[in-house]
Design goal:
With 293 residues, this protein is an alpha/beta fold. It has a single domain (28-271), classed as Purple Acid Phosphatase, chain A, domain 2 (4-Layer Sandwich). It has 8 helices and 12 strands. The strands form 2 sheets. A 7-stranded mixed sheet has the order 4-5-3-2-1-11-12. The longest helix has 27 residues, at 155-181. It is globular and about 70 Å long. The protein starts with 27 loop residues before the first strand and ends in a 5-residue tail after the last helix.
Amino acid sequence: MKREPLPSLEWPGAGAHPPLPLRAADTMQARTVWISDLHLGTPGCQAEALLDFLRHVECDSLYLVGDIIDGWQLRRSWYWPQAHNDVVQKILRKARKGTRVVFVPGNHDEFARRYVAHNFGGVDVVDDCIHVTADGRRLWITHGDLFDGVIQCARWLAVAGDVAYEWTLKFNRWLNRARARLGLPYWSLSRFLKLKVKRAVAYVGEFEAAVAREARRRGADGVVCGHIHHAELREIDGMLYANDGDWVESLSALVEWPDGRLEIVHWSARLDRRTRAEAGAAAAAVASEPVKA
């Protein structure tokens, strides 16, 4: 049977949707949201920013696309501040209020794979699944670690790389605290290194091509995944490839708007905009105060 051509990808441009919220009372209305690689249980998790995002978004379906809780790190040392608990409670509250929440475990929370086909607190646990967008596209949802040769063939190397990655994140947190004091926006050292090191670029490209091929084999129109902490939305050989990024570095999510269009939302940029707006408002308020004689 002849396949219908994949509908053209559209990103909401200026004026296509109202600007994302700058005030706490605002929310954005989406049909579907995908987030992954939260790594709750690690110091690198940007839980406060994630909570801010979850408070500002309402959606019919929320997909948790793996590595939500970092079992690898928690086995090495326990780390679970209140903000991480607040994230879990916020997700469960959304499920109670009618949002369909689907959890696809990844390699860092692989312990949850033994509970596939179960429902906990309104959250469905699945190995993978198909999502149909409002405009009829069938998207295969998977974390993506099964297409990572390092994870599958050399687990010890993956664990060693995870430790090195954690040290990079520690340095990155120190660096961004210094940048914040200078009024500079958030910057990801790890992302910079990935884009500069040829082997890392090749690894990302091979991963993306592999999951896109598997989506085609399954008869889907595209794939949504996580795992590599590299947000992306593009076509690969006629297949839609969408990676929702992470909440350690990029602070990103994949959003489907009510008309079926998809967009990568980078929340760090929204936080920077809000901070500048609040600083400008505070400065204007000070300037408008009458000068005392």
